[in-house]
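Team,

Forwarding the record for the chain on the shared tracking sheet. I've put the sequence and predicted structure together so nobody has to dig through attachments.
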Amino acid sequence: MREAVIVEAVRTPVGRGKPGGALSGWHPVDLLAHTLQGLVERAGIDAGEIDDVIAGCVSQAGAQAFNVARNAVLAAGFPESVPATTIDRQCGSSQQALHFAAQGVIAGSYDVAVACGVELMSRVPMFSSTMGQDPFGTRILARYPDGLVNQGISAELIAAKWGLDRGQLDAFSARSHQRAAAATADGRFAAELLPTPVDRGDGSTGETMRADEGIRPDSTPETLAGLRPAFEDEALAQRFPQIQWVVTAGGASQISDGAAAVLVMERSKAEALGLRPRARVHTMAVAGDDPIFMLTGVIPATAQVLRRAGLDIGDIDAFEVNEAFAPVVLAWAQETGAELDKVNVNGGAIANGHPLGASGAKLTTTLLHVLEQTGGRYGLQTMCEGGGMANATVLERLG
């Protein structure tokens, strides 16, 4: 039986996704090309061995339009024979890219594939030109006549339904920063990070980025308690009287720039090339859920992937659950029974950022390295996605 294994995984440090951020002067094509080059150099393979490159990108407009994956392959200097495609499953785009790559390997369509992603939110802001017109049409609005809501309101609804108060959210958010700061200081990110030249778009040169830019080591529940609710809305308060307005910018993922890439191979192919299979893509799942609550898909996706894997939540040694908003992870933990001490042990998107289309591959890269650092066998990654969906993946560390 064919197996899809991960041979290498890298990510750029994550920059603040605004003008002047450490990566804001990069073109998305060039940043992804830099990451692809770093991936094959670390693996020590000929790029001509790659059967396909699958990239996640959410805002496929402006500098990220016209198949950013193929453009990056050419910019990286890969042979013109290497094809590429760009996909959008919202925040889970590059996690879905990993699924497609692994599925292709298992099915025999590929022997070698790259799953990757990029997003420069400083260059192509979320909901910019890709949302310039009504994306829903009349039939969705007829199905949901009261209207869909933004993700911030979904986070508020989750907090209300699962009884999460402001103190719990602030404590979780502060812990994300503290964990990320400790991981950085201890060098736990070093093996996964690809040193990347800083480009703030101001012409300055010479600096190299070696750490995520958004981590705030001085974050505490007390400092976060001073932030105002980010999504309070009088009209929506009448529609959703249960909302307590507890979600702040401090409890939300950061707007970010970054790229990440994962090299997936059929196990015997990796061994024939003299490469070490580091982890097996054990099981994959994707789920849909209520688009009003939107961010709760991680709950059924986790249940589905564990059922398919024949595992229990207690069998998982490390979790990466995207911190889109603090209530998402806390509600997921309540429902699944996962131990929070095993979740996002090096911090999450609240601290080190969420470069949308890159985040799935970014979390895979981190999860692989966490398993190797801790000696854990199984890791589970899941990520909520716009429209009420979620991907879930179980990795099994090898050797």
